[in-house]
Specification:
With 154 residues, this protein is mostly helical. It is built from four helices and no strands. It is rod-shaped.
Length: 154
């Protein structure tokens, strides 16, 4: 395998992982602020980044496959014999991927927690609104229907 090409592919993948990390950090802040518009915008950005990452990863895997080291039993021995630069770059990729997975898991948990909170608030508001009479046709407060009138007493 051409090590320089492999390192360049790893560098490209690392740059995309760094960009995705930044997006996930922004997403976390948007979740904490309940900023639905920003969350939606970041979801589109994240999708594009994941598509780019998938393409770069496929190129790297293609290099590994062409060299016959695309399986764990062939990859690990090759990596152990590779230059320190290759080993460090690979380790950096693995660490970055673990960090992104953890950040994404935290964001998912936060989003779920915030969604439950928002749902509880909405339910509380709905329940409290049931006791409010509201306004009538002429802008006056409506009177609640009471059961004090008897049938036929009009």
């Amino acid at each position: 395998m051409d090590v320089a090409v492999f390192l360049a592919a790893c560098q490209s993948e690392m740059a995309l992982l760094d960009s995705l990390q930044h997006t996930l950090q922004q997403e976390q802040q948007a979740i904490l602020r309940l900023d639905a518009l920003l969350i939606d915008e970041l979801a589109d950005i994240k999708l594009q980044q994941l598509q780019q990452l998938s393409a770069v990863r496929a190129q790297r895997l293609g290099l590994q496959q062409a060299a016959g080291i695309d399986q764990t039993d062939s990859w690990l021995p090759w990596l152990q014999q590779a230059t320190p630069e290759v080993q460090q770059r690979w380790q950096a990729l693995e660490v970055a991927m673990m960090r992104l997975k953890a950040l994404n898991d935290i964001n998912a948990a936060l989003a779920d927690e915030r969604m439950q909170f928002a749902s509880a608030v909405i339910e509380k508001l709905r329940n409290s609104m049931q006791g409010v009479d509201g306004y009538g046709r002429h802008g006056t407060l409506s009177s609640a229907l009471t059961g004090s009138r008897r049938l036929g007493s009009a």
